[in-house]
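From the methods appendix. Each design record in this collection lists the tokenized structure first, followed by the designed amino acid sequence. Records were kept in a plain field format so they could be parsed without special tools. The example shown here is representative of the layout used throughout.

RECORD:
FOLD TOKENS (522 positions):
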């Protein structure tokens, strides 16, 4: 029997017995032993096998499956530049603590640095990612985050037998070790601030913690916290309002990376308690009054009902200003989408403007399972990630920007069979830059705005995928209510980037004025 075949079967069997059931492969020669072994496992109904042409997209697709299932998912490629394409998804997995298993096929060690074809030093090619250089008999371990398995395959690469190497599988149930949480006793006026990534905890765990705390909740993701304070990032943009609401303490779960106003508010508070397991491994320089690696046993000494009422009233005043604004904009489009999505569905939110607009302008609700690539907040691989996530849900949706869509256009070569609707916010370029300080610099449009000037409808149609275009909230509601099966795109045509920036500035000003008047701060 071929030693390459034996090695591939050993590793695949061990992964299956460790509970890995989804494998994503890209075609190649050096990874042939793995591909053949995986096809044999698929034929016996042991695993799910997904084939993706592009290695970068394949890695993000596997990442999406891992995000949706919280299970280890393996992505496999051949040697050389193919391996390097895994790096963006691995970085996202590292910072989001997702269980992505990157398997790179390699030539034998003796061929490294000899000028052999398609051979480079793949050991340690992904800094900060735990890596194993495997030959026959080598051992490896899977952790709670990403891992890299580099496998040296010598020729011949093809099997010479058909033995039942999958017989007698003993698949691990993967029972998680229960931690004994520490205690936290707080007193005074406090707030609970929840990052979009939930600190890598489950939504159920964080929701339970929030309810038990009784504190006002500022959530970067208001779509899974129906009792969150709506529009906090908008009204806290006003320094006077931040001062009026200054707290005695803040409990922060995860990373807060979306709005400067929230971070300015938290930084003004004397005592801060941060809960995030990644502080022990990745964010080791993060500081606070006290840090916790797991959700603590919380005791709030006394809840000040006047304090809680103030937050609710300010949120109510902000909501009136926002909901009464009937102008068509990116923000109104996102409010309409997030209000109308059906319960029991999944939503992926793209980086850049969409995720910030949802934090600021969406109405808090429940009934959704939300996802985003917040590990490093990149726009690359978002379509592939969405495709992977959609495998685990009966109905899925996504909201992404036009540049995010174009960045992963090749993902449309392998569309999923799932029921997935993707809203693409089309403002012809990098809209977020129009809201940042560089908006007025010389050459802005060329080096920041980057208008794409593409007919997105024609691009999508060229792949044989259904697409519609909407320009009103009524059109959005109609598109959602149709609830067609399969994959479909909805292009949301919104005003240009300059108009968007102006509308945003005006909205912030009006909310600030309304709240100041309501608080007698004007």
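DESIGN:
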């Amino acid at each position: 029997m071929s030693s390459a075949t034996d090695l591939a079967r050993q590793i695949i069997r061990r992964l299956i017995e460790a509970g890995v059931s989804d494998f994503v492969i890209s075609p190649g020669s050096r990874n042939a032993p793995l591909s053949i072994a995986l096809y044999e496992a698929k034929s016996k109904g042991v695993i799910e096998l997904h084939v993706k042409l592009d290695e970068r997209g394949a890695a993000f697709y596997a990442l999406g499956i891992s995000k949706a299932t919280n299970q280890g998912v393996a992505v496999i490629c051949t040697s050389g530049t193919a391996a390097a394409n895994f790096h963006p998804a691995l970085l996202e997995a590292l910072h989001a603590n997702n269980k992505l298993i990157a398997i790179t096929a390699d030539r034998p060690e003796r061929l490294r640095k000899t000028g052999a074809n398609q051979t480079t030093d793949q050991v340690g090619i992904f800094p900060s990612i735990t890596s194993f250089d495997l030959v026959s008999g080598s051992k490896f371990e899977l952790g709670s985050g990403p891992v890299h398995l580099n496998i040296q395959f010598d020729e011949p690469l093809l099997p010479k037998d058909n033995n039942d190497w999958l017989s007698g599988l003993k698949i691990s149930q993967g029972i998680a070790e229960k931690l004994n949480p520490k205690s936290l006793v707080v007193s005074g006026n406090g707030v609970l601030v929840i990052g979009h990534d939930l600190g890598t905890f489950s939504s159920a765990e964080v929701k339970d913690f929030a309810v038990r705390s009784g504190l006002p909740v500022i959530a970067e993701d208001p779509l899974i916290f129906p009792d969150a304070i709506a529009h906090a990032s908008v009204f806290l943009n006003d320094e006077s309002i931040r001062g009026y609401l200054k707290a005695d303490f803040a409990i922060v779960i995860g990373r807060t990376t979306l709005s400067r106003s929230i971070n300015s508010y938290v930084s003004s508070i004397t005592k801060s308690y941060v809960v995030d397991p990644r502080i022990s491994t990745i964010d080791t320089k993060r500081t606070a009054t006290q840090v916790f690696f797991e959700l603590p046993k919380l005791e709030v000494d006394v809840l000040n009902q006047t304090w809680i009422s103030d937050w609710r009233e300010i949120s109510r005043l902000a909501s009136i200003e926002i909901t009464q604004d009937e102008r068509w904009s990116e923000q109104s489009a996102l409010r309409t989408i997030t209000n109308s999505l059906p319960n029991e569905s999944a939503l992926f939110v793209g980086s850049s403007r969409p995720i910030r607009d949802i934090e600021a302008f969406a109405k808090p609700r429940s009934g959704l399972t939300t996802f985003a690539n917040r590990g490093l907040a990149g726009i690359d691989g978002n379509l592939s990630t969405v495709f992977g996530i959609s495998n685990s849900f009966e109905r899925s949706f996504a909201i992404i920007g036009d540049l995010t869509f174009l960045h992963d256009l090749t993902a449309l070569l392998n569309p999923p069979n799932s029921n997935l609707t993707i809203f693409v916010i089309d403002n012809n370029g990098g809209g977020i830059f129009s809201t940042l300080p560089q908006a007025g610099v010389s050459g802005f449009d060329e080096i920041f705005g980057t208008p794409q000037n593409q007919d997105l409808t024609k691009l999508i149609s060229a792949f044989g995928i259904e697409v519609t275009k909407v320009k009103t909230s009524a059109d959005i509601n109609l598109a959602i209510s149709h609830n067609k099966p399969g994959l479909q795109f909805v292009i949301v045509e919104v005003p240009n980037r300059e108009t968007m920036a102006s509308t945003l500035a005006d909205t912030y000003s009006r909310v600030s004025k309304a709240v100041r008047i309501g608080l007698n701060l004007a």
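APPENDIX NOTE: The mean pLDDT is 94.
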